Amino acid sequence: MDEATQERKLLNKWGTQALMAVVFAGTTYGFASLAIDSGSLIEYAITIFFFVWAIKSAIRLVRLVIR
After folding, report:
1. Number of H-type helices and E-type strands within the chain
2. Residue 30 CB burial class (10 angstroms; 0-12, 13-18, ≥19)
3. In terms of pTM, does the model score above 0.90?
């Protein structure tokens, strides 16, 4: 079995997706707090990026649990 297949199998487990969603949500919170304090546009952009990634991970988690 090649490495790509093993990675896909790992990402298709609900525990991995739950952990990723929580990590991205925490990262989003941290960057949002930092962006509010500093007012930096780049930090706001990073916050939006991690927020979208957290939402995608959460949607993927819901799909895995429902399936």
Report:
1. 3, 0
2. middle
3. no
